[in-house]
Hints:
This protein is α+β, with helices and mostly antiparallel strands. It has helices at residues 14-34, 64-73, 100-119, and strands at residues 2-6, 41-51, 57-59, 78-89. It has one domain. Strand 2 and strand 3 form a beta hairpin. Residues 109-120 have low confidence and may be disordered.
Amino acid sequence: MKKTYQLIDETKNLDRIVESIKNDVRKYIKREKRKTLQDEHIWMFDCKSAINDEEIKEIKFTDITNVIDEAVDNNAKTIYIELISKEVKRAPKKVVEKIEDETEVESEVESETEDSSEVE
Length: 120
């Protein structure tokens, strides 16, 4: 999605324009995430933005709404948002090894439950 939004419109309230932009971004993200992936792959998004035709700069995926709010706070006339989805192989999960102390604690817990069943 590559789109330039006008933030100033005399016929619309600024809050409605901002919510419309955020809604478009959310709809695009949901649409892309619905696409099928290969096993062990996830969607990643390359994000870029520019305020008032400034130089386009990369932003974090989690900062998209913050950039939109920042543009409104700076009384910007336009905002450019670019979201490009890409399929990335998921990083392997780390395996946590058990320490001997943990197994001793687990065995103590099991023995306590066995003792309580004998009392009944």
